[in-house]
Amino acid sequence: MSGVLRASGSTLGRCMCIITGASKGFGRALAHLVLNYLKTGSVLLLVEELLQNLKDMQEITIFCTVADLSTKEGVEDTVAMARQQSLKEIDHVLLINNAASLGDISPFENFTELERVNSYLAFNVSSVLALTAGMLQAFPPRAGLQWSVVNCSSMFAVQALPSWVLYCTAKAARDMMFRVLAVENPNVKVLSYAPGPMDTQMQEDIRRLTGIQYHLHPCRDSAAKLMRLLLDNDFVTACHVDFFDL
């Protein structure tokens, strides 16, 4: 599965789309794909590094920002940039929380340093909560405004793996975080999507650190499956969907 999804004429509407971790891998693939489904007047905000070679689409405003989402300043700057577009006539806010890190792969008893643990959780959990909350304040859910949040999850949100305590903990916490959001605010549709093992730098790190070699698939294939879920919009809010389920 690759390329533009031509089977449907549906779009994401006149959308404010925010993608974190957009400089490489899965986030980069999503950034390129989503452009095909944004209506005139949409805004695409890509968080982290400038993306080269995005197609020139004058009817869509593209912003790129470098922000350290593990810091208060990085989260606030990203929300502020999005808030500047809040007066535009949009009918859909789509926030894709993709930014994440692998963290140390080490036995449980080695994590005695609180600062080490907090640093990892600040980027992988706390910043996701603060960024999503900030975007909800910038674009309050209301009648006529579709609100969608994607949490890029993992099979390890629901399956424990020895020596992966940081990664598993963060992914499980994020899944529950967005289940709470879905219960608290029915006007926000939430999806936790596990994109599967992809050909990314993270997988290279896993192979180097553990010797584990997964069968990898291209980022664009997983991005296409996620895009189909968003376009069809018939998933149950707060559900956890895996690449291999589709």
TrEMBL record:
Statement: the UniProt record of this protein carries the keyword Oxidoreductase: yes
Pfam families: adh_short
Classification of source organism: Eukaryota, Metazoa, Chordata, Craniata, Vertebrata
SUPFAM superfamilies reported in the protein's UniProt record: NAD(P)-binding Rossmann-fold domains
Native source species: Hippocampus comes (Tiger tail seahorse)
One GO term of the biological process aspect: tetrahydrobiopterin biosynthetic process
Compartments where found: Cytoplasm
Keyword set, alphabetical order: Cytoplasm, NADP, Oxidoreductase
GO molecular function: sepiapterin reductase (NADP+) activity
GO CC terms in record: cytoplasm
Protein name: Sepiapterin reductase-like
